Amino acid sequence: MLSRRHFIISTATMFSGALAAPAFAQDAVGIEYDEGVVQVSSGGPNPWGLAQRFMPTRVNANDGLGAGDVHVDPTSRFLYHIGDDGTAMRYGVAVGRAGLYVPGNFRIQRVVEWPSWTPTANMIAREPEVYAQYAGGVPGGPDNPLGARALYLYTGNRDTYLRIHGTPQPWSIGTSASSGCVRLVNDHVIQLAAQVENGKRAILHS
Predict the structure, then answer these.
(1) Distance of alpha carbon 1 from its chain centroid, rounded?
(2) What's the 3-state SS for the chain?
(3) Could you read off the pLDDT of 128-187 as tens digits, one per residue?
(4) What range defines the domain where residue 194 resides?
(5) Into how many domains does the chain fold?
């Protein structure tokens, strides 16, 4: 499995006032953030009150990363979608709670709009008071835990039940909040899903 350290090239400052952890990409010089590319609600460019570093940002990608692949850095709470021009789109995410985040090298085999959701047997067994009531499934919609889009992660032909998905809880971005999946603001996962191709890799780094 590829480690997070494999992609380290810099410990440069990524935002004012703090030294960054080693990163997959570094802030681009001279690349403007194009608000027209990012789908946002009518409430403004940041209606969710996210920290600015978790807003979609075009950054320079490290050499050697595969175009179209997705990388998740659980330490900095960033997801990178690698472009074919030496840059990547960086998004803020929430990741799995302690002991539930699963690093690995996966393939994106399905991208679903407004997916339905059913908690896994493990989730129900672990927290029946939370998940048992949803054992019959929840239809897609704005209150669904998977949000507006879901990228289904596979190992070979096996569905891992891990997802990169939206969320109706944007305040969770930047935290460890999920049962193992990676979540983005709905508007951001809509943008990501429109650009991702089936069969591309999703690397969840340790």
Answers:
(1) 19
(2) CCCHHHHCCCCCCCECCECCCCCCEEECCCCCCCCCCCCCCCCCCCCCCCCHHHCCEEEEECCCCCCCCEEEECCCCEEEEECCCCEEEEEECEEECCCCCCCEEEEEEEEEECCCECCCHHHHHHCHHHHHHHCCCECCCCCCCCCCEEEEEEECCEEEEEEEECCCCHHHCCCEEECCCEECCHHHHHHHHHHCCCCCEEEECC
(3) 888 888 788 888 898 899 999 999 999 999 999 999 999 999 999 999 988 889 999 999
(4) 4-204
(5) 1
Q: What is the pLDDT of residues 52-79, one digit of tens each?
A: 999 999 999 988 999 999 999 999 999 9
Q: Which two tokens stand for residue 198?
A: 């089936």
The two tokens of residue 21 are 């952890």
CB 150 within 8 A of CB 184: no
CB 2 within 8 A of CB 104: no
- What is the rounded average pLDDT of the residues 122-133? 85
Does 10 score more than 70 pLDDT?
no
| CATH code where residue 133 lies | 2.40.440.10
Location of structure tokens 């809509």: 190
